[in-house]
Amino acid sequence: MSRHRISLTVNGVRRTAEAPARMTLVDFLRDELRLTGTHTGCEHGVCGACSILLDGKPVRSCLIFAVQAEGAEIVTVEGLAPEPGALSVLQDSFWETHGLQCGFCTPGMLIAAQALLARDRDPSDEDIREAISGNLCRCTGYQQIVEAVRLAARRLRGANLESAS
To answer: What is the Cα–Cα distance from 122 to 17, expressed in whole angstroms?
Structure first.
């Protein structure tokens, strides 16, 4: 099987690796680039565990071939933290509100929430529920996830107010 050279930017770092034409992006990220934070779930685009930001938009990486991401800018859950060993405001808010239980859905939930907060720093609970609606969680009942996103939004708005003064 022929392999294709793929160059893309992942979490701010230019990466190049080879992959077969039919390798999914989630498998490429996990197996070729060793970024295992993005989870493989249903492999049908239903559960949202494999969600990443592709050129700023949340997508299911199990539904995209790695070769289709040539030249793209990707953010995985590993790229949300400001530095290794630290948590982003959103990640810390999930921790503080117990917005994660087993953790399997957490990377996809964080990506969906990150995309929402990038475009709306003051989302309603309805906006939050809509943003995470494509992600399945079997542990939390979603309420703590909504609380986590609400807390992160409040913190981010506060940080913006402090930096403006």
So the answer is: 39
Q: Which of 56, 49, 47 is nearest to 29 (CA)?
A: 49
Q: What is the pLDDT of residues 109-148, one digit of tens each?
A: 999 999 999 999 999 999 999 999 999 988 878 999 999 9
Determine phi and psi for 15, rounding to 5 degrees. -125, 145
Place of tokens 């399997």: 104
Q: Amino acid letter at 53? A: L
Report the 3 state secondary structure along the chain: CCEEEEEEEECCEEEEEEEECCCEHHHHHHHHCCCCCCCCCCCCCCCCCCEEEECCEEEEHHHCEHHHHCCCEEECHHHHCCCCCCCCHHHHHHHHCCCCCCCCCHHHHHHHHHHHHHHCCCCCHHHHHHHHCCCCCCCCCCHHHHHHHHHHHHHHHHHHHHHHC
Left if phi > 0, otherwise alpha if psi is -120 to 50, otherwise beta: which for 11? left
Q: What is the per-residue pLDDT for 163?
A: 54
> Mean per-residue pLDDT for 16-37?
97
CA–CA gap between residue 68 and residue 82 (Å, rounded): 28
